[in-house]
Write a structure and sequence with these properties.
- This protein is α/β, with parallel strands linked by helices and 282 residues long.
- Helices cover 32% and strands 22% of the residues.
- It has 10 helices and 13 strands.
- Helix 4 (114-124) packs across helix 5.
Length: 282
Amino acid sequence: MSAALALIALVVAAPVEPTLTGTRVHLLVESERERAAAPVAEARATLSAAGAQVSVDTVAEAARGWGRPDEVWLALGKGAAHALAAAPPRMRAAVLVRAGEASGLPAVVVDVPLELQLGWLAAAFPGRTRVLVPRRPGGSDDAALVSAARARGLSLELVDVHHPGETVPALQAALRRPGAPALIFLVPDATALTPDTLAPLAQSALEARAPLVGFSSYFLRIGALAASVSDVGPSARQAVALAQAGVAVEEAPRAARLLVDGRLAERLGVPVREGPGVEVRR
């Protein structure tokens, strides 16, 4: 986990975004391999539908000529953001980066504020007031997690994980402790969450019939009951407005929401409730 989460600017009232009709937008990717990636296609389709003239450029192609001053450049990903930060375009921003990864560019980051996510959990899973968070202890986000949970009326239990081998046993022990019905809330943590721990973690949650909530759509594919997701297209549209305004801030994605696997919830017997910011997909 990173203290950079605290730097995210949460926009409560979205400003009116300027029209893109006739605007030239370059989507900058780090390499040729990324040109055909699904997020790039989604960003291009959304911006084109808004009236923009969109092209996809690799860093190598862009270095041969950065276009006119009235053209907008959006870096997709950390590597492209690093390259764009050292380039001459005036209207520029980044998407598909975590907080602190945009090399100083205006950015719409993938991180959703903790209090917003925990609010979604409180709404989506009525009665699940006990939230288990496996992570390496001592991180700078522990206090933010506790504060956000308290603000939403949830009881937070920080599950200490000192090395990856402890993730599943520590979580299973926490699930066995008496208390209110629990859910498992995953946050980015390189110790607790590794390629070797994710599958058994999801299996343990299923066996306990406890909702497992991830922080990207990937977790839904490996057995999580829900995940905080944001759509690339609207984030790219939001980033264009930042680039045009020349505002050097990092914003949370306005199109973010909690996506719940309704069919899995039914199989597990977990009651779920749809509402603002919560989508139950069946």
